[in-house]
Give the backbone structure.
Amino acid sequence: MSTASSTESSGGGAGVPPSSATPSSPRTADEVEGSERPTAPRPGPGRFGALVDRFAPALGAYAMVKATGLTVFLLLLSHTEDFLKKDPGRGGGARPWDVLGTWDGVWYQRIAENGYDPQLIPLHGYPLATYYENSAAFFPLYPWLMRLVGAVTGLGPYGSGIVVSVLASFVAAAGIFAIAERLGGFRAGVIAAVVWGLFPGSGVEWAVYSDSLFVALSAWACYCVMTRRWLAAGVLALVTGLNRPTAATLIAAVSIAALVALVRRTDGVARPLTAMLITPWGMLGYIAWVGWRMGDWTGYFKLQRGAWNRYFDWGASTARSTLDTVTGHWTFWQSNPAPDLIAVALLIALPGLLVLLLRLRPPLVLVVYTLMTVFMALSSNQIYGNISRYLLPAFPLCIGLAVALRRLRPSTVAGLFAMPAVAAGWYAGYALFELGIP
């Protein structure tokens, strides 16, 4: 403005026999890992203490790398002071941290303050735009939460947006940890949360952007499918549809997993069927409302293409921009050399990350969600340097790498991530907000 071996095979074809998902299963994923997993902390008193002991290492490590990156980002901003020369809505502001509320953050703050007024107003004289930009392009869940936090705390739109994003980022990191723990054990879960915090594009996780909220909802929806909590998964997918249009990837993943469970009759009929039927209505409802207010049922899509130059092109623009970037021809639409080169580096790493994930034979819901997220990110006309942010929701990519690194000693892993934690302040923060357009 998402701890034992996976059980989704019984509800989505994870490749694990249904019997292994029952309480009588002789071995869990952590038991199979055996001595490779460090001894987990002993649960504290009560359920809350147990949850703290379980998630604290992952969330603490995540907080550490994020705080390091944010500090470096702010130091770079203070060093150059370029933000003082830029428009407050376009990477500028009076103070370094104001940059975190620019670009899309300005639109979310306006919505939180003033709501929506969906319109299609023709624009003439611009080759790539036929309509004026309108806030209706941004989905409502994130600014709704901003308004709620503001009403409770008295914070303004900027402060409320930061609070929602930071809290949502920890919920997202916890969800990523929980999923990775089921697939590869405790240590893999901690590493996966850290990798997501260092992912290219992760600078928006603690900014006035809706990405952290989206990943939080998506991760926990996938986890609910893996643990056969179909109604919770369906509701989370429905709510995610109010956050971003890319929720289509999660809606498809939950629906396909529910359909497989329905066909196999592993979880009855009512729960997976209900989940499958309710998932799309958040997204469809908002798009329909925008169309109704505009007097044109295709108004949302016309706004996306005519005002924001966003449309599906089967990857033609991504292919052209990649070729232009690697040959040093930064003449394409919204070219920004530093973010564009980071995008190329991520594309080079992408096949390897996919292989590391798929070799785990992950649950169907993760496979569908990840592949569709990658497909949508690379198959749409977009700002090329933003590929790093568009792939940020593909959190399962972090899990395959985390499982591959889990056998390393903690000191080795810490040393491996020390420099990326510092560098993230540049490649995931400064390059994104100041050298590009997030």
Q: What stands out?
A: The mean pLDDT is 89.
